[in-house]
Amino acid sequence: MSVSGATVVAARQMRFCISSILSTGAQSRASTCQRQCNSLNRFVGFRTGQNSQFRTLTRGATEAAGARNDNHDSLIQDSVQNYYGKILETSKDLKTNACTTSDRPNNIVIDALRKVPSEVKEKYYGCGSPVPLGIEGLDVLDLGSGSGQDCYIAAALVGNEGSVTGIDMTDEQLDVARRHAESYTKNTLNYDHNNMVFHKGYIEKIADAGVAPESVDLVISNCVINLSPDKPAVIKGVHDALRLGGELYFSDVYADRRIPEEVRQHEVLWGECLAGALYIEDFKRICHSVGFTDPRELARSPIEVTDPELQAILGPIKFYSITYRCFKLAEMETLCEDYGQVAYYKGTITGHQHNYALDDHHVFETGRPMLVCGNTAAMVGDSWLRPHFNVVGDRSHHYGLFACGPEPATPSPASQNSAPTGGGCC
Prior knowledge:
Layout: H1 3-13, H2 18-24, H3 33-48, H4 52-64, H5 70-86, H6 107-114, H7 118-122, E1 139-143, H8 149-158, E2 163-168, H9 171-179, H10 181-188, E3 196-200, E4 216-222, H11 231-241, E5 242-255, H12 261-264, H13 267-271, E6 278-279, H14 280-290, E7 296-303, H15 308-314, E8 319-327, E9 341-345, E10 355-359, E11 362-365, E12 370-372, H16 374-381, E13 389-392, E14 407-408, H17 413-416
Parallel strand pairs: 1-2, 1-4, 2-3, 4-5, 5-6
Antiparallel strand pairs: 5-8, 7-8, 9-12, 9-13, 10-11, 12-14
Helix pairs in contact: 1-3, 3-4, 4-5
């Protein structure tokens, strides 16, 4: 399919979300918006694009084609840098104005977005801003930071005592991100110093980009890691960069099985972010291999394929946009074990006064006790979340596998007479 033909296909299949993001701050951590955004950028990008996600997508496409040669990868990167750094003037060139998202961000994030310089927003081509609340004082790393919009939001949330680092490979995008950093942090946020820095580099080589081992508390990413040509290298680099108690918090597209090679080479499906989707269980295996023992799913949104031709190619494969949380902790086990521990959420994270969702089945109500497994106790008690939780009990007594999912602090008679069957909270 020609570039122009592919552009028509993408334009007919979706409506891009940039204008909605710029006007309302709408985002989604697990939404079809991610694939919509990347799909249009994948095809329109050769003529107009400047998206850090697309840069990674292009490099991911070389993997599907079997092109793992470093020189070839470098040529692809150089080409993408030229298109994304020199051709597109603003997001208005994309000629689209709508977005479909699964949720609306907290008002705190929306307020932070309103303060971001216009040029940063105009040069930003991502879908959403996966920045959690309650990160005051943390050191944050953004992979594929582009013009820096997510970094600017994070800078407002971490406060004067925190810091934000962005990694991107395009000089023009980095120029935009750096140009406003000083005035934004000192004049807009009234900090006594600039708490943002932007490095040129590749997400597969975080250390080479200037990020020291064990130097950050939180790594964020939005539909970038999954489409890297070397996903294990990215995940391992993140694990190495995180301090003990730190977290990788990111969204991406996944499949319920491994994608056949003939599907992986389909051009339109690459644009749809489907051909490069990682099998969910393979993602977990990568996490386990580098030290993220218990990746937790926070949100999942099914991706619908409505085109009959693509349905025929994909067959029964199911796709999802998923947000994962991966904590770097010392006392983590491959299964969820029961030590009789109870956790309380204090309600101290601004924006989450009434409850806090650790993952898709651990929603802590403020002040209400919840029985938790050893891994969950470590996540809320030994991570950057520690100031916001009280954990009662330790690991001195073991009671077997923990029943999967949350339970009340006082078990019912029925539950007392039945043995737990779970052992996995993720």
